[in-house]
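User: Show me a protein chain along with its predicted structure.
Assistant: Here is one chain, sequence first, then structure tokens.
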Amino acid sequence: MTCDLEPASPGRVFRVGKGPDPWAYPDWAKAGDDGTFGNRWDDPESSYRVLYACSQRLGALIETLSRFRPDPEVVTGLAAIEGEDDETVLPPGYVPASWFTTRLVGEGTLTGRFADVGHGRSLAYLRGALAARVVHYGVTDLDGAAIRSAAPRRFTQEVSRFVYDCTEDEQQQFAGIRYGSRLGDEFENWAVFEPGHPAERQTSQILSDDPDVVAAFGRFGLTLVDG
């Protein structure tokens, strides 16, 4: 089935992952009970894996470090605590120094045609093609907000599978998905379907005084601690 989705071309991309190869696909043995790795564009049928990358190096770090962001409710609760022992409470938003010893930044060039699922043309097509699933998951409307973060993760995983199954001239139509980051409009993200890999791959270490790391820490209010 040929799908009327807006195409996009990635180019140079970045990815933060564990060494020695940040471009390695995740081990199936680490999949959850639902057969996915818990990410937005994973395959709900567990037949292919997905690599996540960003066109901006800072964006790749932002996406990875976002898990350390202080929870607003935790911050509010800690601010309400009074007493002499306040300084003994570990503040939210800390990143252990050991994080930097196990991760690398990967850089490479992606080629192929990707489906821009956030494009108006794509949203209109998916809204009709997946109407039954939209209703099933209680998605108010299939719009840009739903694709980014509002829709249940299981639904966006079904969108991934739908895109993966699109064909043209008996060939797979798309090598992955282009999607906007929920952490900032300036970041352009890519979900790469297995067995896709960027060409001209290279890796580099991540240092705590890296300008992009400093920018990410400042944006999220993160603190580096021993550990």
